[in-house]
Design brief:
Length: 251
């Protein structure tokens, strides 16, 4: 695809702009900013990846992964601003997911240990974990706000912080995982995933593309479960003081 051809796809941007203006949605500015940022960021990443793939240096691969983790952490932490140490909690969650994913894929030699495989897969794992972290934190905040009285009652009856917040924690973890699970139920029927579609368009054997896509789906399922669980159990203790009392300013 040439840049001239690519420019024609901006028609897909004009349509939501026109609808936003017509329906007075007020999303014109955000749409334009999102479009410009996506163009700049993706083109920059494209040239960076080209350089990394050609050099195939372990140092550059690690630096790229670190950049992904930092960017994802800074974005996800906004949803848990009232949770003490949320930045390092999110970072630990993302790093843990990355270690688990790469340990399985590279340890069992499922994929080659090259930048061409490591970086895209890392991007999918870290990106998915970031989204799951945001979903979890958003739902967890809502559960905390709506069950303050219940939490205080359990604490007043001698319950531990873990017992007092167990229902809210499990509900938030479950809710953040549901989108991933539900999307996998209709994969291939309702939608053809991006990685699979990209390989097919590039001329790969459809069966081979399906095999790689299944690998990604299984990986994303693990990242969903691990992300929500780790972040949840790292976060809830900071909502209580040393005397096992609820810090009301956190709710």
């Amino acid at each position: 695809m040439s840049f001239t051809t690519l420019s024609l796809t901006l028609l897909f941007v004009f349509i939501p702009l026109i609808l936003s203006k017509t329906l007075h949605l007020g999303l014109e500015k955000d749409t334009i900013i999102a479009t410009l940022r996506s163009i700049i960021q993706l083109l920059a990443v494209g040239y960076i990846l080209k350089f990394i793939f050609e050099s195939d240096s372990l140092l550059y691969i690690l630096l790229m992964i670190v950049l992904m983790v930092v960017a994802a952490t800074l974005n996800a932490r906004k949803k848990g601003a009232n949770i003490k140490g949320i930045t390092w909690k999110v970072a630990i969650t993302l790093i843990t997911v990355e270690i688990i994913v790469q340990s399985i894929l590279l340890g069992f030699e499922i994929v080659p240990a090259t930048a061409q495989y490591i970086i895209p897969i890392s991007g999918m794992a870290i990106g998915n974990s970031m989204v799951l972290a945001i979903l979890f934190l958003n739902r967890f905040q809502g559960e905390l706000d709506s069950h303050k009285d219940e939490t205080e009652l359990i604490l007043s009856l001698g319950g531990t912080p873990k017992q007092a917040i167990h229902h809210q924690l499990i509900t938030a973890i479950k809710a953040s995982m549901i989108p991933t699970i539900e999307s996998q139920k209709t994969i291939g029927l309702v939608q053809l995933p991006g990685m699979m579609s990209g390989q097919i368009i590039a001329g790969a054997d459809p069966v081979q593309a399906v095999q790689f896509q299944l690998m990604v789906l299984f990986m994303l399922l693990t990242s969903a479960a691990v992300s929500s669980s780790i972040l949840g159990f790292l976060s809830y203790p900071t909502l209580f003081n040393d005397r096992m009392q609820m810090l009301k300013e956190k709710f």
